[in-house]
Amino acid sequence: MFRIPRILRRLTALTLSATIASTAALASPLQDPAWLTSWMASQQPVWQPGAQPLPTGVPAVLSGQTLRQVVRLSVGGKRVRVVLSNPYGRHPVAVGAAQLARHAGGGSTDAAGSSAVTFRGSASVILPAGQSVASDPVVFDSPVLGELALSLYLPQPTAIESFHWDGRQTAWLVAGNATRQATLPAPQSFSARILLSEVQVDAPGHAGAVVAIGDSITEGNGSTPDTNRRWPDVLAQRAAGNGVAVLNAGISGGRLLRDGMGESALARLDRDVLSQPHVRTVIAAIGINDIAWPGSTFAPGDAVPQAAELIEGYRRLIARAHARGVRVIGATITPFAGALRDTPIRGYDSPGKEAVRLAVNDWIRNGGAFDGVVDFDAAVRDPARPQALLPAFDSGDHLHPGDAGYRAMAAQIDAALPELGRQSRSGAPGGKSGR
Fold first, then answer.
1. What's the pLDDT tens digit per position in 373-397?
2. Which principal EC class is assigned to this enzyme (predicted)?
3. Which one of 85, 359, 389, 392 is CB 3.0 to 4.6 Å from 132, fit for a cystine?
């Protein structure tokens, strides 16, 4: 049975020596080892209409409105701070007020469990273009797997330029400053994440983080919204109470080598994974869009990459993680025969793309470059038709698993992480890189 303490015994903690001065905290709020990120949402640039075949689903501008977003923590703590991010913004964002509260279901909060959030002692803050801001610590008893709601009041016209597109969690929007209201009157709703990128807790002893970097299958597309049933959520439940955070750095439309509906995994690896305090391992579940997007509605002019190109990209990711003392677990690419065939997206699958997937998966399993392997392909494929998802695990679009499929994928990690310890008994990362 998978036990997180095994990770704590066998994975070498990443030592972060940098201390953060007050001015540096605004530019790099994630580097303070006194804190552990307990929840995160990777940021993407908001695309212009027509730039992608899928709409953003968010208002272009917010003005004089309160935005309420719900998160589920991985690790709990006695103090909390939030990180607001505007990495792709061309304009500063003014936040007039912020309130943290326990989530009470829907768009409501527990009025008795609510606290104002300040920034360097002020109720308001200017979030600079291209930067992040960490709040002051909030004394807030947050349990393991507890749900919190952050309400932000945006008093000025605010162009939405950075976001996380597929939140799988309802966000709520009302007119005026309603940050302290437990129930929002007649709110609008959407499912993206805006401005909120991390929630951190005071780091417990032997703190550690496992980060899953991937695409929509890591982000959880196809799972039931508002229920935390993505495969990293299932892993977080198993890690609960052991001081190890499981963080989801998935981006729908993400690719390993090239930008998609966000920057490539190689481009965002430092920001989303290696900059996280106490990161010990990364699970790399990425590559399906590198193979399937070319020649499809998403990237009609791109050529399908050779397996060797993807393998070189994985090697680069592994080398960079190992250089920072972080272990890397590779996840095989799941089947996608018939993917998106009942949607406006065309050309997503083909026999040639399937051949590349099989070659890449063979290398992930047998190439020896990763510190461990999670066989997501074996977990969800149809034995009678292995190029396709098992119908019981298919969300319906033949690309994304549903809730049951994500549970089956998470179950594969039970075998992968103990194996990681056997691969490198000394505890030093990189025991198999370089092959």
1. 999 999 999 999 999 999 999 999 9
2. hydrolase
3. 85
- Are 424 and 431 spatial neighbours (Cβ–Cβ below 8 Å)? yes
Look at the block and give the residue holding tokens 């909060």. Answer: 109
Query: Which residues, given as ranges, of the chain have pLDDT below 50?
Result: 1-27, 418-435
Please enumerate in sequence order all residues whose Cβ is within 8 A of that of 386, keeping only pairs 6 or more positions apart, or say none: 335
Residue 300: CB partners within 8 Å, gap ≥ 6? Answer: 347
Residues of the chain by 3-state class (helix, strand, coil), percent to 5: 25, 30, 45
Amino acid found at 203: A
CATH class of 204-423: alpha beta
For residue 82, give the nearest of 149, 17, 24 by alpha carbon. 149
Burial class (CB in 10 A: 0-12, 13-18, 19+), 185: exposed
Is the pTM value of this prediction over 0.85? yes
Cα atoms in the Cβ-side hemisphere of radius 13 Å centred on 115: 17
Pairing relationship of beta strands 208-214 and 244-250 according to DSSP bridges: parallel
